[in-house]
Amino acid sequence: MREVVIVKCGGSTAEQLTPAFFESLKAMKDSGLYPIVVHGGGPAINTMLEKLDIQSEFVDGLRRTTKPVLDTAEMILSGKMNKYIVSEIQKQGQKAVGLSGVDGELLQAECINEEKLGLVGEINKVETSLLNVLMEWGAIPVIAPIATDESGGRLNVNADSAASSIATAMNATRLLFITDVNGIYANNEMISQINEEKIEELIQSGVIYGGMVPKVKAALAGLKGNIKEVVIAGAHGERTTSEGFIDGTTIVKNSWINS
Ligand SMILES: Nc1ncnc2c1ncn2[C@@H]1O[C@H](COP(=O)(O)OP(=O)(O)O)[C@@H](O)[C@H]1O
Ligand SMILES: CC(=O)N[C@@H](CCC(=O)OP(=O)(O)O)C(=O)O
């Protein structure tokens, strides 16, 4: 059975992705796994929106997306971020193909709530055969989270939720969120393992806030699929296994631990 690993790379880490991160993708491939990279680009989108003097705001962790905001997000995600990651992987001597959810209708989505969020989508179908073709060719697919809707329009999708939808559709066994912190922290200490109940408690008490909220929600959604393990880790995690996995906070199903 082919083991697919989804590696979501946060926009917060984009400027700081080290050779170690790209080596970890190579290590995954060398050990027979099939990594797929899904990336964000939130901070770079913010910078470009400011430069262009386009207003945007976040509602429940999602960017309210008008048409000019969508055009800017697509320019940064499908252009700058996607090609940066593809070229860095290629520098490692690996094959990589970058695409957004628009290409080959890879990510199909429906608008969540146009009045509240504008052009923001939730994925309802992934064209998995396209990813299979690329992986058969030996490439690491690198995916930007812009999706297409049923009338061929484009929608902005949160990258954490895109990663989780792709993980479920591809029957992935592992989902890894690489971000700018080494894991989930509480009382200045990193939590090594956490379940849904404890996550809810930490959201309620405000210990988990901001961009970490959609991330843990996407992680929990991922656990409902075939996935054995969801990990939130830093690009500079303290320990990387021979298979290329970086240490961080492991999110487990409620029944797996007693807390
Ligand atoms: N309990 C927590 N532990 C660690 N980070 C947290 C926590 N709660 C909120 N955060 C914030 O979440 C951020 C990561 O989310 P985000 O900025 O959206 O990253 P990305 O761009 O990688 O998706 C961290 O930089 C931190 O500020
Ligand atoms: C709808 C929505 O919020 N889309 C995100 C897509 C990029 C993203 O998710 O990037 P990070 O992983 O860096 O957060 C946005 O426009 O910022």
What does this structure look like?
- The record marks 8, 215 as: Transition state stabilizer.
- Pathway: Amino-acid biosynthesis; L-arginine biosynthesis; N(2)-acetyl-L-ornithine from L-glutamate: step 2/4.
- Catalyzes the ATP-dependent phosphorylation of N-acetyl-L-glutamate.
- InterPro entries: AceGlu_kinase-like_sf, AcgluKinase_fam, ArgB, Asp/Glu/Uridylate_kinase, Glu/AcGlu_kinase.
- Keywords: Amino-acid biosynthesis, Arginine biosynthesis, ATP-binding, Cytoplasm, Kinase, Nucleotide-binding, Transferase.
- The structure is a single chain.
- This protein has 259 residues and is of the alpha/beta class.
- It has a single domain, classed as Carbamate kinase, CATH 3.40.1160.10.
- Helices cover 36% and strands 27% of the residues.
- The protein is built from eight helices and 16 strands.
- It has helices at residues 19-30, 42-51, 67-91, 114-117, 128-136, 159-169, 196-204, 212-223, and strands at residues 4-9, 34-39, 58-59, 62-63, 95-100, 107-111, 121-126, 139-144, 146-148, 154-156, 174-179, 185-186, 189-190, 193-195, 229-234, 248-252.
- It has an eight-stranded mixed sheet with strand order 5-8-2-1-11-15-16-14, with helices on both faces.
- A hairpin with a 2-residue loop joins strand 3 and strand 4.
- Helix 2 (42-51) crosses helix 3.
- The longest helix is centred in the first third of the chain and has 25 residues, at 67-91.
- The protein is globular and about 45 Å long.
- The mean pLDDT is 91.
- The structure holds adenosine-5'-diphosphate and N-acetyl-L-glutamyl 5-phosphate.
- N-acetyl-L-glutamyl 5-phosphate binds next to helix 2 and strand 4.
- Adenosine-5'-diphosphate binds at residues 10-13, 40, 42, 160, 179-181, 184-185, 207-212, 215.
